[in-house]
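Subject: Thiamine kinase

B.,
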Amino acid sequence: MELERETGWQLHPIGGETGQAYMGTKNEERLFLKRNSSPFLAALSLEGISPRLVWTKRIGNGDVLTAQEWCNGRTLFKEEMTSSSVIQMIRKVHQSQSLKRMLHRLGGKVLSPSDFYYNAVYGLAPDLIAHPSIRQAVSYLEKHMPADDQIENKMVCHGDISHKNFLMSSEEELYLVDWDSALLADPVADLSQLLERYIDHQNWDEWITAMIPFTPGATTSKFYWYGTANLLFDIKASHQKQDYLRMNQYLIKLNQLLS
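Prediction pasted inline below.
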């Protein structure tokens, strides 16, 4: 493989949707290697949010290869996503002004509520548009869209809060990885993703009440609005992947929410 000749590392592809991640081995050393990872990675590494960045190298075809410390551990179980350590990690990201300055300098995406609405609704398949709950959700999002905050009130958001993106090392250190979806937005956008994916609907109000004091600008209505938008996005994404089992699970959640 050309990439192995350029780097001097033997590459072992790691699963994932992009196909750009590898375990690199040389002698007895191991690294996590990824093509065209976000340049934001260096700042995340410095703050201890992602595993330590070892080196960055531009390869022959113009791609950039990053190498991070190989972290023995595991991704979190779904049941662990309600833990205080997960919330603390997300808050650490949201509260970091240095991360915000860095992402802003790098030209990171800045999303308003209308952008979240567009991302959730645009490209919905005709059979989804015809679904009564989907139509009701779209109407709700249109009528109750929050006012857009100034850039000063937006924070760094991960953009894909999933148990697969939280890594617990063998030393019990928690990391948040896969930053390809990083953006500047209302922090409720991240927290509502955690809410709709991992919190039982019966516990939503209690959970939201606990989060609001620690989330600038947060209100119950914002949590419900962003939660609905994220549910629609997840329904659309599951339909596109033909993962109809997961899509139906999200539709059940949407029905519970709207009722």
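The mean pLDDT is 89.

T.
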